[in-house]
Specification:
Structural class: alpha/beta
Shape: globular
CATH superfamily: Vaccinia Virus protein VP39
Number of helices: 6
Helix content: 25-40%
Strand content: 15-25%
Order of helices and strands: HHHEEHEEHEEEHEE
CATH class: Alpha Beta
Bound molecules: S-adenosylmethionine
Low-confidence stretches: none
CATH architecture: 3-Layer(aba) Sandwich
Length: 267
Amino acid sequence: MKKLSDYTGSNRDVWDASAAAFEGKEEWQEMVEALKSGGFSDFDQTMTQTLQGLGIKGRRAVQIGCNNGRELLSLPSLGAVPALGIDISEKFLDQARRLAQIAGSDCRFLRADIYELPGDVPADFDLGLITIGVLNWMPDIGRFFDVVAGLLGPDGILVIYETHPVMEMFDPEAEDPFTPSRSYFDKTPESWSETITYDGSPGEPGPTSYWFTHGLGEIVTACVQAGLIVEQLREHSHSNREVEYDIYEGREAQIPMCFTLVARKPG
Ligand SMILES: C[S@@+](CC[C@H](N)C(=O)[O-])C[C@H]1O[C@@H](n2cnc3c(N)ncnc32)[C@H](O)[C@@H]1O
């Protein structure tokens, strides 16, 4: 049986190995140009409306699993202040620091495994963000939410915009992609040994990554047990994940494809 840090260390290696390819993409140059001209936002309509509905103006934000910082750097367009991005991949944080400089942001980026955060990380943020494709990298969802709740100050809001756990039952590349291929309750970590791309293109051979499934009930329970008050849980019919999953959108018998969850730390 592996230790938690065996999983997270191997996941760090695969994210580091994947970073360079993202800079070669057209989207990177578009993002650089948009950051230079100001008003940049990478949020889709669902995330924009969720954040606007909460009144986040002036809130200082921390993002857990911030990757290249593009979402943190979208917050000024909604009046919030990107303050700290935490990620395990130094290579993606290099990109985040360069993007922040282009945007004229003084957001700080910290390389850390969320399970081994240094003791001097502030615990007073008034907005926490977790977005698309973070929860499944976490071997222990209860400990994860304990750490996340510890980053928020009194009345701090946590906003999660994630892929729906039901999607883990389907494999878009299977012969029959519409028949569930995995039990919703299967907790065996999935593993791959190739670099990560978001655009459907094949990765290069690389370190092994480990992917963990957590049911919606486990996610909400972990949030509540960490002392947060859940204020909203909305399931959505659109996809917010890799392009291969677009085949599950717009169907008559629609499955939930993503969710937004808002929770608050008691004041
Ligand atoms: C799918 S990406 C998030 C992408 C982000 N939503 C975006 O659109 O830019 C997941 C991120 O979680 C980070 N991550 C994975 N395991 C982590 C851990 N144990 N501690 C901190 N960050 C971690 C990865 O390095 C990666 O950048």
